[in-house]
Amino acid sequence: MKRITLICLIIILTSIISLSITYAPNDKIWIAYDVYNEPLEKIIEIHPNWVFRVLNIWGNTLDDGRQYSQDAGRFIKILSENNIKSSAMIGGISISSKDKKDFIEASAARNPLGKITGVDNKTLHGCYNRIEWRQRLETLFDIAVKSGVSAIELDQPSQEHWRGECYCNTCNEGFTKWLIKNNIKDIDKDFDYVAFLKKNNMAHINEGDREIVSPYGKLYWKYQIEKDRKNIGRITDEFNKRHKGLKFFGNTWGLAGEYIPAVPYYSNIDIAGDMRTPWIWEPDKDRFGAPFNSWIPVVKLARAIDNSKSILSFLDTYPYERILEKEHDRKDDVLAQFASEIIASGAEFVFPYSNRVAYRDISGFDHERMKDFIRFLKDKKELFGKRKSESPILLIVDEDEAVLKRFMKQYWAIAYLIIDNSLDFDVVFRKDLVNTDITSYKKIIDCKKYSEDIFRYCYDKNENYIKEVKKKISDIKSPYSFDGDKYTRVFRAKDKNKLIDYIVPTDIDNKKSMKIYFNETDKDLEVSTFPDSIKVKKDLKDGKRILELDTKPFLIILKKTLENK
């Protein structure tokens, strides 16, 4: 009877698994399960190094968390016996409405009118500034670790994103102290920001507009960001004390501005795919590849924040829902391009993540595509580890701008302009310029020198806003020209004595052959493609190297050895 019960539990657990793919340094392959429909034997057969999110505790009570942890523990043990590690996800701002009333009262976030905020009436929001909530997270970490996982992901590691700002008594009183500490004019210990908002009829206005109409709006945002930095530091330090040797990383949801100060505290940078900041998801109707390049500025920004961290980049397919519906018969190809684009632009690991549209039967890679991708990454692992960018353009951004304005309109517009010209770029924060070698860049562009109006480029390509930038980069030429793909992106990197170019053809609905022209005659040129079954013919004509591919790949990698000087 016990054996039958155990078998049933395993079947239930493993029936809630959906596989997607990501690449990590040191030949670590991560697989995610979120849509839940993949049998356990498939995971064992593919044999990743990690399974991502084997346990999710998000908006649950402690009793629920303990039960989920116990159930997942059986599955985690089987993975461990097969030398496969696993990670758990803990909801950083999610309180169950079924929790004890005194705990909700002590931990929940509130709007200026005193009402508890939440995702819905079932899941409420916790406030990081309240010790009761931080202690609850630590307890949930302990519960998850007991299941046997080797890593914890803190989902929603900032209380600002999605939930919005909190105006509970703890936050309100802390703001008054922060204003006094920062010598803000005409502020004393009796100042009450919530009372100020109510008196001036601003309490009902959403946070974004309140920053405009309230003289203290931006200050309140800056205060909350600084508190987030300290709170995440406390949480991380406590986790590392309790659980030495385990990984701890935060879900940064596309590196929206509020997460920038917290990134250095994690063992990994974890970029979610929704990337709702900024809202620029409407691609040109005639450009199939348009939305994919949205990822490149995010990866570049992550590198500027902390180049020593790994980037775990998972792609929430929600923003691409219409494209996936249109290309439903080719959804695996679409997701393959997602992964190729992120890997090429500098992330160490990436996987499609599709639970937001699962109800429409749009899932991740099929088995064969996933197997092919894992095999390709493992076979070419030397091409996807740490690499030094050889971008020709450097963009300078300001950290305060990134944090306080949610996103930098100038940065996004200029980044898109560069990408659309098949060029690559790096990002540096102004404060880090003193430690940056700028001599290798052909052009340096200070984003702050441009008006926010340049952002209109993302919508209507109005030349009045981009002439200066176009002129600045007009003399920089891509090392390649192409037949068969109009929007190809090229990323150049150096690894020791190797120069590596990552080329991503974006017009993937065109399955015709493709030619690459460049002024290279190197006999030692190594060519890799994904899929690696594509036939590549090398030719030399008029001193120019020509590569002819019989089918358009998702990713082309060209590697050559540099001459010793």
Walkthrough of the structure:
With 565 residues, this protein is of the alpha/beta class. It has two domains: 26-164 and 247-385, Alpha-Beta Barrel (TIM Barrel); 389-561, no CATH class. It is 34% helix and 21% strand. The protein contains 17 helices and 23 strands. It has helices at residues 2-14, 40-46, 62-81, 101-107, 131-146, 169-181, 193-199, 207-213, 217-242, 295-305, 321-326, 331-345, 367-379, 399-404, 409-420, 457-460, 467-473; strands at residues 20-24, 28-32, 50-57, 85-91, 94-96, 123-125, 151-155, 247-251, 268-271, 310-316, 349-353, 388-389, 393-397, 425-429, 443-446, 481-483, 489-495, 498-504, 514-518, 526-530, 536-541, 544-549, 555-561. The strands form five sheets. It has a nine-stranded mixed sheet. A hairpin with a 3-residue loop joins strand 1 (20-24) and strand 2. Helix 6 (169-181) packs across helix 9. The longest helix has 26 residues, at 217-242. The radius of gyration is 25 Å and the shape is globular. Mean pLDDT is 77; it is low at 2-30, 33-37, 273-292 and 354-362. It comes from Muiribacterium halophilum. This is Beta-galactosidase trimerisation domain-containing protein.
How much of the sequence is in beta strands?
15-25%
Low-confidence stretches: 2-30, 33-37, 273-292, 354-362
Domain tally:
2
Across the major sheet, the strand order is: 1-2-3-4-7-8-9-10-11
User: What number is the mean pLDDT?
Assistant: 77
DSSP summary: helix tally: 17
**Which CATH top level class of the largest domain fits?**
Alpha Beta
Quickly give the CATH architecture of the largest domain. Alpha-Beta Barrel
